[in-house]
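## tool: complex_structure
## caller: assistant
## args:
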Amino acid sequence: ELKVEQNPLFLSMQEGKNYTIYCNYSTTSDRLYWYRQDPGKSLESLFVLLSNGAVKQEGRLMASLDTKARLSTLHITAAVHDLSATYFCAVGPSNTGNQFYFGTGTSLTVIP
Amino acid sequence: KAGVTQTPRYLIKTRGQQVTLSCSPISGHRSVSWYQQTPGQGLQFLFEYFSETQRNKGNFPGRFSGRQFSNSRSEMNVSTLELGDSALYLCASSLAPHREGYEQYFGPGTRLTVT
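## result:
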């Protein structure tokens, strides 16, 4: 079974600082998705990465994918309070099947 | 355009009962997926439907089933409810199946509580 690990699980950072969330997955896949979830809300799609070396940016968030390392990163630049949320990466389908696997999530709190 | 809608939004059931949840995808979207979200297990894939056919199924017991209608609306059913089935059930729609790499749009979810 494909495993998706995110770290850190919890992140508290000050406004204006930069940080990176890491998403590692255990088997070959060239499709990686990032989502945001606010408390009590549904998931909002942030990025869809479909090939090795893909990089996408939206505002203060930038996501990248290295399929050889089985690693995706979500980089936060100059964090603001509005970015406080839980961020999930998801992988799939992979060469081992068509299932869709989510990471454990990273709970981000940006402190003013 | 209207987003993914799910009904009901909240539901309380008793152990042993069954429940049916409904999902209406974004107009034009033909792929519907279902996910279960719990604090302990996180987000887990239940199944995916495309053109009224189940394309993929996650590792859930047979008590969990679903179907998709010709208008792409989907329902999922859980029979013989257990306490552990208490969760947020999320539906997501996309233009085409996962394998095509299309973006998924999630509905607000149905919060199921089993007592």
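## assistant note: Chain A touches chain B at residues 1, 31, 33, 35, 41-45, 48, 50, 88, 90, 92-93, 97-105 (CB under 8 Å). The CA atoms of residues 29 and 94 of chain A lie 4 Å apart. Handing back to user.
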